[in-house]
Amino acid sequence: MRIAFLGDVNGRAGRHVLASQLPRLVAARSIDFVVANVENAADGFGITPELSEELLACGIDCMTSGNHIWDKVEIVDYLPGQPRLLRPLNYPDRAPGHGLYVGETAAGVRVAVINLMGRVFMPPCENPFPIVDQALKRLEGKAAVILVDGAANPAFGDGHAQVSVDAIAAGVAVLRPVATKPGDLAPGDLAYVIHTSGSTGRPKGVAVERGALAAHLAAVTARFDIRADDVVLHYARPTVDVALEQVLTTLFAGARLVLPDDQLMSADELLRLLDGERVTVANLPSGYFHGVASALRRTPATLRTMISGSDRLDPDAAAAWTRTTGIRLLNAYGPTETVITATVHDVVGGDVSIGRPVGARLAVVRRGGPRFQSGGATGFGPRPPPIVAADSAWV
Questions:
Q1: 156 shares a domain with 228
Q2: Report field, pTM of the whole predicted structure over 0.85
Q3: Which of these is catalytic: 68, 195, 216, 345?
């Protein structure tokens, strides 16, 4: 089956190209189903009923949108009567129109389209993840193929579906039923999807497979030396992949996880929490760790490992921590694309380095031309090198 997804039909020029080229494309590529995002079809701002009918006549089977669907007031009364023009499903139920469409190809294959919108830098809307869960349950047995278009480039999936990795970058996920029994899961099945922070450019979706995550958990749990009798502090925000690592390494080791009620604590408040819960392993973002290290005046009673990550570790803060506590300090680093923590360094005093690769990874060092260092190296300088996988299983 062949599906054409057109990312954004923008203005008169986009409509002209669509009208002149889509029939030719469908015929040449034997396209079975066409989906297009049309929220900017009216000169870059919304869509009108007349333009909707014009685009459908070009051969589009279903049209999706985002927050700009409401830019033209006349579309409000049109949406309820045109099921092939969708607005995001995670708008409130009272919003006019439809967020889900089920159509058929010429061969009789039923195709469902779910339209969702992300919540980052977007107008308020419902959380798309439970909404897509509900939609997938409604569609059980009703469609052979399910397409999910997420405005603002989210990619969605749950235990009932597998997201096509190739489609995530385009902001559309192709969902097909997959096995849900743990014994039937394969290393290539999707474990999670998360976006990069955008600190080095435009945020992009990263898909991590189960095999890569399982290999990482085994390697990083051993590197951090998390044991069954440990008590681990869960401090990372849920929007970053380190939060997954803190939860899953704890479960992997059979340890206990502590979730604080307050994420904004002074050094004294943090110390009371560590002592009160008898925390043995803590992983803090480096910016917060710097403040804690400079303000700390005594050693946490039960802590044996402190991990600093997510950004550059300041040597002065590291030295202050060592002087005050003498507790093992690790500097952790890793791009989202390489499955959370990719390198770890055991800090001695103020000697801070990016460290050595965790598990089967390979560090690629670029300084005055590329060279390759198997097993990692220290003292890379102020800018960390890119980290790539030594095995194709690592994404």
A1: no
A2: no
A3: 68
